[in-house]
Amino acid sequence: MSSPLLLDVVAKAHEMLTVGTVVVLVFTLVVTYVTSTFLQLLIRQARSPLRHLNGPQSQSFFMGNLQEMHDQENNNLIARWEQQYGNTFVYRGFIGGCRLMTTDPVAIAHIMGRAYEYPKPDFLRESLSSMAAGNEGLLTVEGEDHRRQLRDIWYDISSSPHPHLSSDDHRFRHSPSDPFAGKQKDTSSGHTTSILLKPFSAFVSSKVPASRQTDKGLELPRHSSDLDEPPASAPRTPSPDTPALTKVDVLPWLARATLDVIGEAGFGYYFDSLPAAMQGAGHENELARAFGTIFNSARKFRVITILQAWFPILLRFRTNNATMQEAQDTMRRIGLALIEERQAKFVAEKAAADHKRSAIGDEQVVEGRDLLSVLIRSNISSIPSQRLTLNETLCQISTFLSAGHETVSSALTWTLYALARAPHVQNKLREQLRALPTTAFNAATPLPPPLFYAIFRNPYIDAVVREALRLHAPVTATMRVAAQDDIVPVSRPFCDRYGRKRDGIRLRRGDIITIPLQAMNRSTEVWGEDAAEFRPERWEGIGDDEEGQTSGVRQGRGQRGQGPPGLWGNIMTFGNGNPIIGNRACIGFRFAINEMKIFLAVLVRDLEFSIDPSIEVEKKINVVTRPCVKSEPDMGNQMPLYIRPIPP
Ligand code: HEM
């Protein structure tokens, strides 16, 4: 054998050995990683005191009860389990891991009141971070970072006697008592302060573009995914002398409208996603499209989603990675543009101020109280420990954009659904709205401040919003993990799986807890036998006390003898407790409530919403609860309602 040939053979053998070795090494590493993760899980499970609690049978070795849980909104699951096992029990998660489920108000107050001892589990943070374009925003950070961010954002916004979300926008403020003190919006930009939804306003003001008007009314795309296609035809016209009924999928329109509102009110930015969509195919606003991608991405329960939670390496192989990445890049790009634009404005303002004032810190110049000003003030703070990094600022922007619009659009969608299913409530609400001190709502002119006051303070509008938020909480449940061993107090003893009475829930570090926000809102023990009914009258004659809790709600077993827990109105919809004392709860709740009231006032006054009684609408959970028509699963999220203008 010649020596070059020998060398060639040796080189080949070496190459094969190297490739083979690498393959074996990688395989061994993967097997070790998977086995050790499984083992850790099994050991943790075997040591968790939760294994002694009562609870439903696991349905599958790998997935436990997770499939049932995913569909919990449609099968009254938690109430059934509660009836069977009491208000404190366990269900099974991945490979049979016990997860605590409790509706005990004292236990909930204990857990949710200790934000840093009970952080969000990593897999929840991972799932939330997709909508916040990263995990450095308020919704996903933990510990000291959360404390610092909350201090910067919440305290800054709430330190003003009349804090509001935009320095130059008088529409939405935190203080319900005097929401209009301060500046009026400058309308010279050509943007109107009216938030009348343009597609709906068409019915009210007949200002429908001629090209889109038909004898059946205004034709609108049915679903966000249909936007590239010609709009669907309206299904029917009942009779020539009654106003046309038009079928509209209200979900994407409300999503666009609420995106426009948070953009303008929170960041002084005009997404104009409603007018863009009105122009038809191909004109959808890119950010609205990006949010559509993110919130539609996990519609179905998939085993891979659960596996990804435990084996994050699998996230790299997501099928929709490229689309999600594109959506997140869009958020990031728009966020950066917002920051740059506002920073430039502040630099110019500072230069002007420098002429007048000699020694002044940068951050003092940024005087606006809108969210963006608050974020940028923190970003340029001269005290490093208080500074928000650029990445944090960006994540904060997408957090507020998504937390601030998807939740409200879900809430409004379900409110219209509830009103469509309860015409007597809708009629009563309309009567109240028509009695308000105004002659017309009109898309082109701002609502006058006295009308805002009247809307915010109207008891029936308030009752409708409370009842809709109680019965249709956009966030069904949240989760926490015990960061250390603990014994959680309960309001009354419960039985474990051996029938022994327990007066506390023992937790071991790493145990996972589900807080069933929606199930608590529907507890018959607190709300009575008609808890599942949409009945705004239950709120009549009761209002908020100074802490936002509702006096007059049936006394539950809440903390220290108060009513049931909840940040607002004794419902769990916005989480529990007060962010000021270290709880994690919604910091946009006032904004959301006020926004809902105005939308409802504008929409319901002159439009009637009804629903085809033959369709069954189901709830699908994808961070927020979105509707699907049971018989049309392939249509994805939708809420088809009939709309008809009501003559004055
Ligand atoms: C009906 C509308 C809304 C609902 C039902 C809602 C619900 C919630 C819930 C349940 C949480 C707590 C999640 C947890 O701790 O696990 C939360 C947190 C949060 N919400 Fe809302 N929200 C709404 C509107 C808004 C709005 C309009 C904004 C902003 C303008 C907002 C901003 C936030 C932020 C930043 C957090 C994270 C707070 C923290 O962890 O410290 N939300 N929301």
In short:
Keywords: Heme, Iron, Membrane, Metal-binding, Monooxygenase, Oxidoreductase, Transmembrane, Transmembrane helix. This is Cytochrome P450. The protein is of the alpha+beta class.
State the share of residues found in helices, binned by percent.
40-55%
CATH architectural designation of the domain at 147-472 and 588-645: Orthogonal Bundle
Strand % is 5-15%
- The CATH superfamily of the domain at 147-472 and 588-645 turns out to be Cytochrome P450
Overall geometric form: globular
Pathway: Secondary metabolite biosynthesis
Biased composition (Basic and acidic residues): 213-226
GO molecular function: heme binding; iron ion binding; monooxygenase activity; oxidoreductase activity, acting on paired donors, with incorporation or reduction of molecular oxygen
Region (Disordered): 162-191, 211-244, 537-566
Structure report:
- By secondary structure, the protein is of the alpha+beta class.
- It has a domain at 147-472 and 588-645: Cytochrome P450 (Cytochrome p450, Orthogonal Bundle), CATH 1.10.630.10.
- The protein is built from 22 helices and 13 strands.
- It is globular.
- The chain starts with a helix and ends with a strand.
- 44% of the residues are buried.
- The structure holds protoporphyrin IX containing FE.
- Protoporphyrin IX containing FE binds at residues 138-139, 150, 399-400, 403-404, 407-408, 411, 474-475, 478, 573-575, 579, 584-588, 591-592.
- The chain crosses the membrane at residues 20-43.
- This is Cytochrome P450.
